[in-house]
Amino acid sequence: MMGVSLLGCTVVTPEPLPPYALVSPQEIEMENVNSLALPTFHTVQAGETLSVIARRYGMAWQQIARLNQLSPPYPLNIGQKLRLQTGATPIASSRKQVARDYAQPDRATFSQTQTQRGSCSPAVNWQWPTRGAIRPSVSESGRKGIRIAGKTGQTIRAAAAGQVIHSSDGLQGYRHLIIIQHNPAFLSVYANNQRRLVREGTRVTSGQVIADMGLDNQQQAALHFEIRCQGKAVDPLPYLPNISR
User: Which SUPFAM superfamilies match (predicted)?
Assistant: First the structure.
């Protein structure tokens, strides 16, 4: 997963963005920000996320993440200095974590360390996100999960109730990615979608339709699905109910 523990901190979901108001990497590179109007640094305040800070300065959150070499889930700390201009030197921040901003797709460094089921609590009542032939899966970026083959446009459902903390098409190795947070311990990940039907901040029920199945990197219709416990990828099969295959 993301290599980040979700215990001991409060996850603050970023403010909902306009539906599908996504910024492509090409648009980010071409965006002309007037550096003369920007301060060199921004000091993170309690409750702020990259989305909030970026809107304040008329920037794309991807720019700020890239300038500060931030990786998902983009945790911010009170007093942290974020550079807003190229060439500024990062300043050490305090340890008090105030937010995790999942609104930004960019370089990801999710840990693949397997975590034993017994260490994950509270439990989640999981269900299958879709039906089809099941195979082990590794995403383009090397992240582990399962591959559920099906048909293009096949319904993808939330594997459990929770809140959408990421919905974008811009994360390398995760096409049309959706991440749902179910409790402080568990996240579920849905990638290679053809169409996303939920946006960040949306609360979903177990079994709610969240996407349509798309094509994987082999141009075959399949869902890449992950369960993450305490920020680490786990084998989803022990968590999901038994089905006839």
Answer: Duplicated hybrid motif
In a domain, 42, yes or no: no
Positive or negative, the CA dihedral 134, 135, 140, 144 is positive
129 vs 56: which has the higher pLDDT? 129
Query: Does the residue 179 lie in any domain?
Result: yes
Which residues have C-beta within 8 Å of that of residue 72, sequence separation ≥ 6?
2, 102, 104, 105, 106, 108, 109, 110, 166, 171
Cα 115 to its chain centre, rounded Å, is 19
pLDDT number for residue 143:
60
- Domains contained in the chain, number: 1
In this structure, what CATH number is given to the domain that contains residue 212? 2.70.70.10
The predicted structure's pLDDT at residue 17 = 38
Residue 223 lies in a domain: yes
Tokens 């290599």 belong to 3
Structural domain containing residue 176: 117-234
Contact 188, 182 (CB under 8 A): yes
DSSP 132: S
Whether 149 is in a domain gets the answer: yes
| Cβ within 8 Å of residue 156, ≥6 positions away | 129, 130, 190, 193, 209, 210, 211, 212, 213, 223
Predicted confidence at residue 203, as pLDDT, reads 94
Taken as a whole, the chain contains a residue count of 245
Residue 227 structure tokens: 């369960």
CA distances from 46 to 17, 21, 39, 52, 104 (A): 20, 26, 19, 12, 19
